[in-house]
Amino acid sequence: MIPYGKQEITQQDIDAVVNVLKSDFLTQGPQVPLFEQSIKVAVDAEHALAVNSATSALHIACLALGVGKGDVVWTTPITFVASANCALYCGADVDFVDIDPLTYNLSAENLKKKLQHAKQNNLPLPKVVIPVHLCGQPCEMEKIHTLGQEYGFAIIEDASHAIGGKYKGHPIGNCEYSDITVFSFHPVKIVTTAEGGVVTTNSKGLAAKLDLLRSHGITRDSSLMQNDSHGGWYYEQVDLGFNYRMTEMQAALGVSQMSRLHDFVAKRNALAARYDELLKGLPLVTPYQIEDSYSGRHLYVIRLKINEITLTHKECFEQLREKGIGVNLHYIPVHTQPYYKELGLVFSQLDEAESYYQEAISIPLFHTMTEAQQDEVIKVIKEVLV
Question: Pick from 207, 226, 260: which residue ends a domain?
Fold first, then answer.
């Protein structure tokens, strides 16, 4: 089975982790700051804070921006559930903005229309909007940022798929058009720490808040304490935080992997370009790329031209798997999940998202993929569709 995605673990990575296991620190040691520094350099952000997952990162990002009961957060329905769940963790409500039919990202035009409708009808405006850079392709962040300035919402970029990508010539994660960016380092992502996440921001105040939230709300910084220190052992809990810290083993793996980030993304883009060329003429749509962008190419999603093939979407998917191609579907629209239906919230029409779900298939793409593996994927796709 050729998987849709997989990690590469080299001897360099193994040695980095083993060295930590032999060291004095398995947690709260030097590797996490080194990993955070590697992220800051890679994405050109002022602050980077590592946590144990991108889900945790999204949670504390919402909290740091003051999301709570009575607020509403807007995001895309085509994402992993964590992009929406993070608002519910904070007691807020969630609503969704339909996707762009070309990029499959949250549509800036649909966001504008939804904001106008909400304002005209005295409906709640979002406290935070979470655009998701699906497959690694950036959203239209400049337009979304302009709307944020006009309507007063904060922005969290969910860049779980997008480390190493660029938007308008600048690294995704530099927070030029957002308050906070979140990255994921799950094994199928571009860079892995086994499990892990990072938040980046250019705000010193947000960084301080995020730092507290990831570690129980506890500080040893005297400037944040309410009382005088009792001695060298002293700390204070000044907020209600969580144990969301990243371990030293995870961070060491991340440091090692980040040294190869450029090569990872370059290879993924080369493979994607080869797919673009060799899939031409088939009854499917290959990924569209917006101008002034460089995708991290976490995923390669094709959309079937259902009216031009005899099989159903499900039959195509199952036949590809039966023939050894480990396809997947990213994602089931969040608003259709049973839990979200039971919330009793009323969501707007999300026709493009539901249409996408009926046609999309993620085919294998990972930076260690060989041309022989890619040729096999293409051969099987032709067998199934033609």
Answer: 260
**Could you tell me if 60 and 173 lie in one domain?**
yes
Check whether residue 41 and residue 156 sit in a common domain: yes
Phi first, then psi: give them for residue 367, nearest 5 degrees. -70, -15
Same domain (yes/no): 220, 309 = no
Judged against a pLDDT cut of 90, whether residue 346 lies above it is answered with no
**Residue 141: per-residue pLDDT:** 98
Number of domains into which the chain is organized? 2
The residues pairing with 74 across neighbouring beta strands, listed in sequence order, are: 95, 129
| Res 345: pLDDT | 81
**Can you give the residue range of the structural domain that contains 52?**
2-260
User: Per the structure block, which two tokens stand in for 347?
Assistant: 């969501």
pLDDT tens for 247-298 read 999 999 999 999 999 999 999 999 999 999 999 999 999 999 999 999 999 9
How distant, in Å, are the alpha carbons of 282, 285, 308, 326, 361 from that of 304?
9, 6, 8, 17, 8
Residue 28 Ramachandran class (φ > 0 left, ψ -120 to 50 alpha, else beta): left
Residue 287, SS3 per DSSP: coil
Find all residues with CB under 8 Å of 298, minimum gap 6, and list them. 5, 135, 136, 161, 162, 189, 190, 268, 365
CA distance 55 to 77: 16
**Is the pLDDT score of 344 beyond 90?**
no
Q: State how far the alpha carbon of 201 is from the alpha carbons of 155, 217, 267, in Å.
A: 11, 19, 28
At 136-179, the pLDDT tens digits run 999 999 999 999 999 999 999 999 999 999 999 999 999 999 99
SS3 annotation, 118-171: HHHCCCCCCCEEECECHHHCCCCHHHHHHHHHHHCCEEEEECCCCCCCEECCEE
Query: Max CA-CA distance within the chain?
Result: 75
In this structure, the answer to whether residues 42 and 79 fall within a common structural domain is: yes
Q: What confidence score (pLDDT) does residue 154 get?
A: 99
Paired sense of beta strands 170-171 and 166-167, if any: antiparallel
Q: State residue 116 phi and psi, 5-degree precision.
A: -60, -45
Angle 272-295-174 (CA atoms, 0-180°, nearest 5)? 160
